[in-house]
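Sanity check

After download, print the first record. It should look like this:
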Amino acid sequence: MAKGHKDKIAVITGGANGIGQAFAKRLAEDGVHVAIVDIADGAATAKMVEAAGRKAVVVKCDVSEPQSVTTMAQEVKKQFGHADIVVNCCGIYPQRNFIDMTYDDWRKVMSINLDSAFLVSSAFAPAMIERKWGRIVNMASSTLGSVTTGFAHYVASKGGIVGFTRALAGDLAPYGVTVNAIAPGLTRSPGTLVRTPRAGFKNMDEEFEAVAQLQAIKRVEVPEDLVGAVSFLTSDDAAFMTGQTLSVDGGRVRR
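Expected structure tokens:
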């Protein structure tokens, strides 16, 4: 188990299911109390956190909307007093050919995948600075280093996440706050299971298997493959690591 987790407070966006839910479960097992922030119902995740003997708070929030984030942060402060850890995990993964993409399509992806990281980090960073300890983890993507079609808005948003991570790391490092990112590959989760498969694939199972064959480790990635990385990056063991993007994609992309 990584060091320094006991009784820390984590805010996890997109925590109601999928990767965010897996993160919440693992951090709770590490000794962290968790605020589950999502527009969806986070009750199932809360049960997992409580089963690990930790406190859970569920806060419904549209993390792309500034006032909603402000209200959420106030509720977290009311329930927990502060947050030591922020995991910006929420995101959407739509596919649309660039020539068919509208500005509304573009803005929706940017607001949920990138703007939310700014808003949520901004809400909790001041208290981290005051306490001289904090961990912010953002979600990038292996698509940033892969050949893709139909994901101009998504890949641009994840490129923004990497840039934001690097820049924010410099701003917050003097105060004992680290900022890193995790770049997963195509992960079997509720969000990807409902997506329409890319052209040439009959269903998402076919696409999962095809992507797995591009990896050094040739099996389909699942949320549990990512939890060790978030456990490490939010721990005392990662105190000297900041501004980095950690690829956890079975060896598909080499950075």
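If your output differs, re-run the checksum step. Summary of this record's structure: Helices lie at 18-29, 43-51, 66-80, 103-131, 152-172, 190-193, 204-212, 227-233.
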